[in-house]
């Protein structure tokens, strides 16, 4: 079935419709109430180092009991064929790219709202766990977000079909871990209400546990299209953020997993309405997981004109950018495709968000790991950065798009000296010496001026003599006489 589908919930309540937004699971509030002391704004561009003995979060059970509060999403089912290739797919040259790698043998964990066993996955979705309803094992997607994200990574329509859409790593396996949902709610304590209130599923603590679980299950890449935004002024690093930092460090350093996260969307789930401050070293808000950039590739969104998407949150942690507008992916309510979502008021808009830029990079990481299995997670991260189309900024990086739009062909074919054991050229202390000021010799100019002046004077003298001679020649002047 090839249909344009919306992500409209069957229920007409505002809460149900809200799950159609690009990041239904983006808000990851901490379940631990706290009142931290204010922090200096310039101290939050990078997180503080984590103690080596900080305990690793563990467990696979939900943090509370969750119940379905809104009906799961449905489809507009308008029967519109989507046969064209998305612009992002053309921009990243999938047809050439898959001559080098297809993601075969790679397991990409999608920590999200769950992933449906869509027909275009061909049975490659593995149950990884469920922090919402454990019995579902991550294979239910009531919100639709996780299925769309996973489709960009690994969807593969049947051979011979006239469908243009395809995932960037069409032979990769998806390990689905449901960590969040806007349609399931449970009672959790908060700083405002220590006694608890009904909140959507998903916290930083369960995200940390999901990362550890995915790493222990053998994922080579983890995609996290979920974000938590908070003001810098709210305080220093929290205990929940430390748990996530510990989980990411464990997955990256000990389990050798490539970690990819969306950069966040402006105006959503606590993220700023603007681009997060004018000083690159003084963000007004921090976004996690991207904040932990030592371990995470943070992905901004680009539009089809090659400009940063206006909704993409900037920050010193942004690593690279990828297509994030006019998205086509799997319809989570049917076995077809979707390119639209429905907002409150029945307004239909195209699918967009940094949530959908991140899976392009996660899929690219899977391709790199297939083609270069000897590379470490850090080397894969460096390959992605070095091969990107750098912006015209000092060091080839800025806070909007990081090191620029990813270049998958370059990432799979570029020769990187450090991978061959070739040390980088040492920096040279070269002093810029300006040449001494030139001492102008004006003698030739003086001679020329004197000569020219003499020539002019001689010419004037000659003209005067000639004129005088002509006036004094016999017959040159005749006397005129009158008659009487």
Structure report:
There is one protein chain. With 484 residues, this protein is α/β, with parallel strands linked by helices. It has one domain (14-419): Peptidase S8/S53 domain (Rossmann fold, 3-Layer(aba) Sandwich), CATH 3.40.50.200. It contains ten helices and 16 strands. The protein has helices at residues 14-17, 87-91, 94-97, 145-154, 204-216, 239-254, 358-371, 377-386, 408-413, 443-471, and strands spanning 67-68, 107-112, 125-130, 173-178, 181-188, 197-201, 221-224, 228-231, 258-262, 285-288, 296-302, 320-323, 329-330, 337-338, 340-343, 347-350. Strands 3-4-2-7-9-11-12 form a seven-stranded parallel β-sheet, with helices on both faces. Strands 1-5-6 form a three-stranded antiparallel β-sheet, with no helix packed on it. A hairpin with an 8-residue loop joins strand 5 and strand 6. Its main location: membrane.
Secondary structure: elements and pairs:
Elements: H1 14-17, E1 67-68, H2 87-91, H3 94-97, E2 107-112, E3 125-130, H4 145-154, E4 173-178, E5 181-188, E6 197-201, H5 204-216, E7 221-224, E8 228-231, H6 239-254, E9 258-262, E10 285-288, E11 296-302, E12 320-323, E13 329-330, E14 337-338, E15 340-343, E16 347-350, H7 358-371, H8 377-386, H9 408-413, H10 443-471
Parallel strand pairs: 2-4, 2-7, 3-4, 7-9, 9-11, 11-12
Antiparallel strand pairs: 1-5, 5-6, 8-10, 13-14, 15-16
Helix pairs in contact: 4-7, 5-6
Membrane topology: Single-pass membrane protein
Family: Belongs to the peptidase S8 family.
GO molecular function, one term: serine-type endopeptidase activity
Question: What is the compact description of this entry?
Answer:
This protein has helices at residues 14-17, 87-91, 94-97, 145-154, 204-216, 239-254, 358-371, 377-386, 408-413, 443-471, and strands at residues 67-68, 107-112, 125-130, 173-178, 181-188, 197-201, 221-224, 228-231, 258-262, 285-288, 296-302, 320-323, 329-330, 337-338, 340-343, 347-350.
